Each structure stands twice: as C-alpha cells, then as structure tokens.
Amino acid sequence: MRILNDPEVHIAGRFFQRGRFALLSIFLCSSALADEALINIKPFFKQHCVECHGSDKQKGEIRLDTLDHDLSRPETLEIWQGVLDQLNLGEMPPKKQPRPDMVKIREVVNILTQSLAQAYAKARSTGGETVLRRLNRHELRNSFRDLLYLNGADYRPDAAGSRLIDNNGNGSVERTGNDPLRFFPEDEEEDGFFNLGDKLVMSDFLLKLTLGAVEEVLNQATHLEPRPKVEIQHLKGHLSKPRGRELEAFCRELHPDFTGMYRNEPLRPDVLGRGLPVSARYRITVEASSHNQKHPWGEILPTNQNEPLRLSLSLRKGRELLPVTQWNVKGDGQKQTYRVEAWIDQQWVPELNWENGPTKRELRTDLLMKKYRADQATKAPDRKVITDKKEYEKANNEWWRQMSLSLLKNFEGPSLRIHSLKIEPLIGEWPPKSHTALYGSGLGEEKEIRRLMMTFAERAFRRSVKPELIEPYIQLVLKQKVEPVVTLPGGIQNLSYRVYEGQWSKLPDFDALTPVATGKILNGLIDLKLSKRKEKFGVVFAGTLNAPKDGQYVFEMASDDGGRILINGKKAVEHDGLHGAQLKKGNVNLKAGKHAIRVEYFAYGQPNSFRAGWGGAGMAHTQLSVDSLRTPKNNQKKRDEVPLLIRALQDGYAAILCSPQFLYLEESSGQLDDFALASRLSYFLWSSMPDETLFALARSGKLSQPAELRRQVDRMLADPKGAAFIQH
C-alpha cells in the first residue's frame, strides 16, 4: 500500500480498499461454504463411521460425532485430513463392515478435498498484510555492503554466498571464503523464495551469529593501515610462457612482441601468479588486434566468420571465475585499445580469453598442415625406426616444433594478438569512504560523533530518526571518554641500505666490514630483494621512525636467518643464529618524536626471509617490511591495538546493527509512507537497503509520485545491483 498524492492513485487506493473487502468477503464466504459442506456430509459419517468413532467407541482415539467443522483450528484440520486419507486409501469403513456406494464415497471425498484445500489456502494467506520478518542472508549481506561501502567478490549482487565444501574428500564439510555470513544457517525456501515471513524469525543463536558478522564487517570497513603502495603493472610482449605443443608456445619464437591467441583458452599473466597484492579498484587497459575474421580454413576451424572476435576479461582465484566484460575486436588487424574499471580483491588475477575461438580439439597443427600446407608438411618420426624412447621423444618434439613454426609463418586462420596489458590501481582518498563515513575526521569531538551516528542510524533504520531514539547509542560511545585517533606512519623515513657478502652463522660486526652495494629505499619498506643475492649475504637498513605520542611500542620480527632491530642504538628485538622464520617481539618505551632505527640481517642459505612491523600505544600494527607479518587471514586487529575512539564507535554501530530496526523489515499498518516505499522497493529489486537517491526522494516526499516511481524502477533495474532481482 502507498500514499500517493495523485487523483489517479486515490482512485486506485479506493479500488484497493474495495478489493480488500472483496477478498475478505471471499474468505468469509469460502469458510461458510466449507462449514456447510461438512455439515451436508455428516449423515454419511453417522451411518458408516460413528459406530466405531462415536460416544461408545473411539478407535484410534478419534471421535467423529462431536467433531466440529471449524477448519481454522489446526487440530480439527488434522483430524479431517486423516479422515480423507482413510477414505482415499479405502481402509474406512473396515472391510468387515457394509461398504457404502462408490459414487457416494467419491462425492464425500470431493467435498472433503475442496473444503480442506480452502482451509489450507486460508491458513497460508496473510490476509493481504505484510508479515513482519527479519532480513534473510542475501539481504543482510547486501545491506552490510551498501551501508558500510564494502567491496569484493563476496558482496557482488549476484553472489550466492558461501557454500559447504568438502576440502579434503573425507565427507567432512565446512564453509570457506570471506563471506561474513558463512556460519549462518541456510534460510528456509518455499517455491524458490527465501523471504517467507513465518520462517525468518530470530533466535539467541542467530543473534549471536549476527553480532559476530557485525564485528567482522565493521573491521572490514575500518582502515587504520597506511595508504597502500601499489605499482602500475604494464606488461608487454609475452604475458605467459605456455609449455607443450600448443601454437601459443611456439608463437614466442616468431613473435616476441605480442601474445598470440589461437583458440578458446584462458590467458593469465605469469608475473601475477599469486594475484594482485592489494584489494582495490583497478583500471585495466588491453591493447589487442584481430586477424583473419574471414578465412579459408573454415572446414577445420568452424568459427562464425560473420561476427567479430570476442575478447573477454574475467577475474580468477583458483576455481572461482568472475566475468567482467567482453569486447568485440575489430577485424582489421589494427591495434585497438579497450579499458574497463573493476574492483579486484587481493590474490585475484585478470584473465583474458577468446570467447568464440576454436576449441583445443579443433586447432590441430597436424591436421591444418596436412589440409592447407601439404607441400610443407613432413612425416612424423617412426617409432619402429627410432627404437630408443628418449631419442624418439626428442625427434618427435622437434618435428612438432618445425610443423608448428611452419604453420605460424603462413597462418591464415583467425587469431587475436594481445600487445599489452596495463593494470593501474585507482586508490583515491585515503582512508576510503567506508572508514570516513564511520569515523569522520578522527578528532573524537562530541558534535561530530552525534552527526556520524545520526547519519548512520537513519541509513541503517531506513527512515528518519528522532534524536531520542539514538541517544542511548550515542551515550554508549561518549561514556568511554574517547580521544582523537592517532595512527602510525607507514614505513621508515630516510631509509637506506648496505649490502655485505659473507658466510656467517651469527650476525657479524657489520660496521667493521665493507659493503658491496648501498642505496636508498623510497617507499620506506625493508626489502631483501635489493641485495640481488639469494644466499651468503647480509644487509643493514637504517632510517628514522616517528612516534606519534608517548607510550610503549611493540616491535615484531620474523627472520630466516638471523636478525635484530635496534631503536636509538638499543636492542629492541633479536633472533640471532641459523633458524627458520619465527615471530619474536620486544617492547620499547618511546617519547613522541623521531627515533633512529637500525635493522641487521644475514642469510646463510636458502630459503631466506625477513618480515617486521611495529605497533602499540593504542595504535594498530604497521608493517616495516615489504612482506607483511600479517596475512589476510590473521590481519584481524587486536582490540588493544585499535584506538579508543574507533572501538567506542564500533560498539555504538554494532548495537545499531543488532537492533530490530535494522534486522527487521518493519512497516506500519495502513498505507506506506515514502520511506517504507523506498525500503520495500529496494529490497524487492536489489535485495538491499535504499541508496541515497531513494532516501533523498523519500525525504522530499516525491518517491510516491507515479511518474517518479516508474523512473526509479527503470533506474534500479538498469543498475548492476539489479542482478540480485534475478538471483534472489
């Protein structure tokens, strides 16, 4: 129901009211007819059933002579259903008793069937009213995403959520991934719908899971680390080095300036084997050209020569594949430039593919040479002639290589060429919006805290909020006596390095040695690769750290082999000798200001590594080395590492997100106001909360205008979030 300030809609409203009255009349009439029908068949049961199910006997504890006709009562409905089942099975009346006429039985069965069907329909009906229900898993996840400005594969509009996976094949399953709702039970489904009001209820178990998910998403939205330093990847020439007998492998010999694509096969850059290092929005630029769209080799390579060659871009992590876009590459042989922007999570890799290219089975070098280059085709080595297995394999591989090179030199089939791939990080303001929307400037002033929490509550509750409603949440924050947020700077200032050669079992006196290389490190992060050595070397790093305030700081280090960290010339943490990487910690009291840091390390053999970081004084851990001590799985910050203001605001936001006003889709009786209409519309089309456009229209009272409502429906269906309408 809606409030619409339009004559046409008022007419519709009156029609709806009449329609509701008509529906009510139908239900009442149906109920009356059902009761009357049951009364009409009462003589049948008196004649054939009451003897065993009457005042004297009640076989099976069933008595029919006093059974009422009110099918709205579950216990009555259950008994009448049992009677119908017995009649359908032919088990009543008992075989020893006189059998009623089959025509009469069918008549009674039909009447009972219709009456019970009407009763079940009435029981399922909500009478045209919306049933109060909580958000289902998809809606809750999407609401977290939009409320907290989160990104990632788990928050895609068409994401199915975490799945139960048997990781080790022993039948024991677990939920994997980073979905914050991965531990939630599946929502009950009926006829493909997961939004059943009578099923979506809350329990103490579910509330506990919700609190855990809330804490997780708030941490995902919080960014206390320094601005990520991500280099632009500009890859040219051969993006990968395929092995085997495929044409792509031999293309490298003839064409070092581009990567050839001759079939429908994914292409992933070798240098990104472990995926991108930082989750961020990226601009991906591809230079590609299309060749021989129309070609004479259609008999063996049956491509559609009337359509352009389609180049696709997807994102891959293991077996997971996320399509991003497709481009139709002009078939004129000229370089074309294609760009797209997409959010890419850490460890995901961009993947290119020729979507309408030949299959591996179709692209056979031997068949193509035999059919179209018979004058250049040579006979394969004979296994009977070359009896030595290794010699035969060597000869056969060389024969295949020569055949492939000959085919590529005179290739008239269709192909794509990838001339370059550029992956450019688009990290704008820092911290990102997910952080600043929660914590603002970080000064901790009461006025800003009230503004932040009021804005958050209105978006979370999806309506205008009176100050007195959120005052308890605000007091929950203010009573913790918050102070401004202070964060550690990333890296080491004025960082330099000195490289030494030698074979040691313990850290030497580096000052007594002569370095073989020296240099500066602009990004301020310790990096062993600068030594350009794999073993038998040592490095000394020196620079300055800036402590933001007085306090106790903790320095952490994991080295393979020996290493130590000195602050102002005094040892903070040390792990000398030959050993694997083990985490070591040391506490140092520092005054606010600059302090000298010196890091010493040596490597005896391989493998070797060095990772370090610092934190404390109410501030989050910050890395000092290129390789972080904290992996994505263990990067959850300890509560005492998080500034008090952040902790206090997270407590307030968590209380809001665990409140019924957020977790439930609640509507007042009567016609919907604009905020309720915005909420109903967004959860119907997006399975998520309204966006700022819908909120603005609701605040102005314009959303309920028919023309505006139609515009918003069109806009929402065209939005990428509209994929949820089909998926969920």
What does this structure look like?
- The structure is a single chain.
- The protein has 728 residues and is of the alpha+beta class.
- It has four domains: 7-124, no CATH class; 130-227 and 432-485 and 643-666, no CATH class; 233-425, Jelly Rolls, CATH 2.60.120; 493-640, Sandwich (Jelly Rolls).
- Helices cover 33% and strands 20% of the residues.
- It contains 18 helices and 22 strands.
- The protein has a six-stranded antiparallel sheet with strand order 13-12-14-19-16-17, with no helix packed on it.
- Strand 16 (563-567) and strand 17 (570-575) form a beta hairpin.
- Helix 8 crosses helix 9, helix 11 packs parallel to helix 13 and helix 15 (674-685) runs antiparallel to helix 16.
- The longest helix is centred in the N-terminal third of the chain and has 34 residues, at 7-40.
- It is extended.
Helical content class: 25-40%
Radius of gyration: 36 Å
CATH architecture of the largest domain: Sandwich
Low-pLDDT ranges: 1-33
Number of domains: 4
Query: What's the total count of β strands?
Result: 22
The dominant shape is: extended
Overall average residue pLDDT: 84
The assembly state of the depicted protein chains is single chain
Number of helices in the DSSP assignment: 18
The CATH topology of the largest domain is what? Jelly Rolls
Q: Distance between the terminal alpha carbons, to the nearest Å? A: 23 Å
Organism: marine metagenome
Pfam families: PA14 (PF07691), PSCyt1 (PF07635), PSD3 (PF07626), PSD4 (PF07631)
Domain PA14: 490-630
Protein name: PA14 domain-containing protein
